Amino acid sequence: MKFSKHIISLLLLLVTTTLSAQIKFEAKVSKTKLGINERLRIDFEMNKDGDNFNPPDFNGFTVVGGPNTSVSQSWLNGKRSYKKTYSYFLAPKQRGQVKINQATIEIDGEVYKTQVVTVNVTAAVKRPNDPDNAENIASENIHLVAEVSKTNPYLNEAITVVYKLYVSQSTGVSNWREIDNPRYNDFWSQNIDIKGLKIQNGSYKGDDNYRYVVLRKTVLYPQKTGQLEIEPLTLDVTVEVPTKRRDFFGGRLMTKVNKRVSAGSRTINVKELPLEGKPENFTGAVGDFKFNVITSKTELNASESLQARVEVTGNGNLKLFELPKIKLPNSLEVYEPEHNENVKTNLGGMYGSISDSYTIVPQFKGKYPVPSISFSYFDTNSETYKTISSGEIVINVLEGPVNTANSDNNIATTTNGSGKQQVVSNNEQFAFVKTKANLKPMHQDTFFKSTGFWTSLLLPFLAIPLALVYRKKREERQADVFGNRIRKADKLAKRYLSEAKKSLGNKEAFYIALEKALHNYLKAKLQIETSEFSKEKINTILIERQVNSETVSEFISILEHCELARYTPITNVEMQQDYEKAAQTISVIDKELR
After folding, report:
1. DSSP code of 18?
2. The domain 21-122: what is its CATH number?
3. Which of 80, 151, 265, 517 is deepest in the core (most CB within 10 A)?
4. Has residue 66 got a pLDDT over 50?
5. For 7-21, what is each residue's pLDDT tens digit?
6. For position 408, what pLDDT does the model report?
7. What is d(CA 224, CA 227) in angstroms, rounded to the nearest whole number?
């Protein structure tokens, strides 16, 4: 009996599995690899009708068509065949591996899901023309071109890429947006701002029946040698193209088509800089430059400072090389240089100046020569290396201590006429070194059981009562709400009046600082702006905040006195009294304020 039950259960399971296996719900794509300027079709097919179809979110795509629903059924050899399809047309938004998530549908009370589909989106590709397709008609009338100024530059030589959109006279463009920007790998790049798009007449591949607009200008400096690729720029353009239909007056009707156009990738062959004649101090400068070392002054006194500026000006890769370092005598104190860049970029590349400014402080009197330094660069016009030298600069320190290093009579120095010092040594310069030291052994005491040992052992235990007393006092102080409020108010008054205290003795500065301190206090405590300060408003707000009327009157009288005191004779004693009165009044207000 049990055996027959098991057989029946197994048969039911097989029947259920067979019936479930007959239901299919799957996603099919027209291709798994496509260019960013192409379209993708995806079909969600089922062999039995269902309810509650939910498509995926299509992240990474723009739905340009669909859903389109189609149903087909047929009979073959007595068997019914059924197929229902939901179709979508998608345009990719970006390159890379893009996933289309699961779609779901409910069939016979059960939910079925499609598999996740992965699509590889590549750079824009060329597509054959279809003269009967409106999109391909637009392709014949709109073109995106990348014009490169030079295809075989030297390493770090500027090239420009200008992107132009050509449109035939019979076609219009109502809107466009960038959907795939070139990343310019292995290039230093900078876009040049374009203020307003200007439509110009031009020729595309010998056809003069075109207009064009410059969409983008980019300056590139190649950072590697060899074959480098400039990735394409891709646009999504709304194109208005003429149709074969005409309006009532015989004019052609226009239709709008979304068209993706690409400038196509460009290959640049970057040449190595020549090894012949390459200077040792060459740091990668390529272009046409001038070089200078400029000092703010050449005569000064010791402890005064001067500025020495190492500067390169011209046209080239100004941000992509290092300036030579200045070398100075040890007697001159030199600070880390401040680097400055005044560089702009146009279609010719970077131009302007870069500099390192050194602050130099001489310590001693004398004349100090700054050696000539040189700067080397590769001139792309002559295709040769050039070196510019700055020339020697002499810094003359007129007044200051003389750099001497005497030690008893062992070292003598003399100063020659030029201010430079010469060191003269004698034969006894090491006579201070003792050859007989008369060393004696030290007596070593054991630390264990010594006074220091017992003190360090018992000290932590003695500190426990002190810590308890400190904690008790601290708790009492925190519990003293009134006392804490008084102390806080006193600190607040001192903080706001600190600037006025520094100006005691200088009447005008003192009363300006005192008035500012009172205003700042009101701003902090009452949250009112300086523009709202008036004696009537201050009086009203303080009374509303339960400050005693006598205290309010005292505060306002101090403000009035600050205004008058700047124009009347005031003694230092009166200034001190006003300061103390202001501090006391602020303290009282802070205690009474609610």
Report:
1. H
2. 2.60.40.740
3. 517
4. yes
5. 555 555 554 444 444
6. 37
7. 9
Statement: residue 290 has pLDDT above 80: yes
Q: 488 in the Ramachandran plot: left (φ > 0), alpha (ψ -120 to 50) or beta? A: alpha
Q: Where in the chain is the domain with CATH 2.60.40.740?
A: 21-122, 287-397
Angular region, 90: left φ>0, alpha ψ -120 to 50, beta rest: beta
Fold for 134-270, please state it. Immunoglobulin-like (2.60.40)
Omega of the bond prior to 274 within 30 degrees of 0, cis? no
> Taking residues 400-406, what's their average pLDDT?
68
The angle formed by the CA atoms of residues 478, 480 and 482, to the nearest 5 degrees, is 125
Which of 31, 172, 7 lies closest to 89, judged by CA? 31
Q: Which two tokens stand for residue 95?
A: 């390159």
Instruction: Count CB-CB contacts under 10 A for residue 325.
Output: 11
Please enumerate in sequence order all residues whose Cβ is within 8 A of that of 236, keeping only pairs 6 or more positions apart, or say none. 91, 176, 177, 179, 258, 259, 260
- 287-397: CATH topology is Immunoglobulin-like (2.60.40)
pLDDT tens digits for 245-283? 666 555 666 677 788 888 888 899 999 999 999 999 999
For 327-356, letters b (16+ CB in 10 Å) and e give: ebeebbeeeebeeeeeeebeeebbbebbbb
